[in-house]
Amino acid sequence: MSELIPHEIRGWKIQEEAKKYNRETIFEYIDGAGEVYRMYAFRELEVFRFTKPDEPDIVLEMFDMTASVDAFGVFTHGREGEEVCIGQGSDYRGGLLCFWKDKYFVCIYAEGTSEKALNTVLDLGKTIDGAIIVIGPKPEVLKYLPQGGLIENSLRFFHTHVSLNYHYFLADSNILNLDDKTDAVLARYDKSEGKSLLLLISYPNEDLAHLAFNGFMIAYMPEAQETHVLQTEDSTWVAAKTEHNVVAIVFEAVEKEAAERLLREVVVIK
Q: Can you list the domains of the chain with their CATH numbers?
């Protein structure tokens, strides 16, 4: 990854050789949060430090996530800031810039609030963006998300049951059979009939999708085996369906019709 990094920018120079971490050693750099990256196909992290006299240091963290879909996934894990048009998607808040491009997830921040340093953080991001030539594909499952009412920044892409429960607690056990071979996306919607949450999961084949769907119905909404629609204890509605190799579930809909309508908008074409 060093070949993508400038040795100097706006007077800030790389201080020393990059520190490198892999799936086993990442906790030496990022304590508990290292598990977030291991939920994806994280391969390696390189950390660079830029220094300039009388200015705060700038730290660059560059993650090789093996595949563009997992770089995108890590990017979506906690984005809350402003899109600044760097990479294939960016998030800028409080002087911290994170973006993804191809198989790389990049975070840059200044260890201080100098205006020059903050501007250099953005310039460094643009420089690295330009050095990464490949445009990586996004996950295929995103194609099935209805666009009307979608809250873009709410979108979370992941693989595992642990990740799902982090974003939306469903159950202690893995009732949807999620693993590193499933692609899942969770997104919030705000339509005229109210807000709701949509979960789509793509399985390697139709048999696995139907098996997961049946297991979910038995464990989560057994009284709705025929209708696939249920009002929960908090008076919101859940609706579910399986189509080809995809399971779709609407949570927290304010009305039964709203849940069914959003579910109908999920069209899986093979």
A: 2-131 (3.40.1000), 140-264 (no CATH)
Q: What's the rounded Cα separation, in Å, for the pair 235 and 138?
A: 35
pTM comes to: 0.94
Per-residue confidence at 33, pLDDT binned at 50, 70, 90? confident
d(CA 250, CA 238): 5
Which is nearest to 212 in space by CA: 243, 253, 168, 251? 243
214 token code pair: 């049946």
Please check whether residue 182 is in contact with residue 157, taking contact to mean a CB–CB distance below 8 angstroms: no
Tokens 């810039």 belong to: 97
Each residue's pLDDT tens digit, 189-243: 998 888 999 999 999 999 999 999 999 999 999 999 899 999 999 999 999 999 9
DSSP 135-178: -PPPPGGGGGS--TTB-GGG-EEE-SHHHHHHHS---SS-TT--
With beta carbons less than 8 A apart as the criterion, state whether 21 and 47 touch.
yes
Nearest to 47 by CA among 108, 114, 122: 108
Query: Residue range 93-120: average pLDDT?
Result: 95
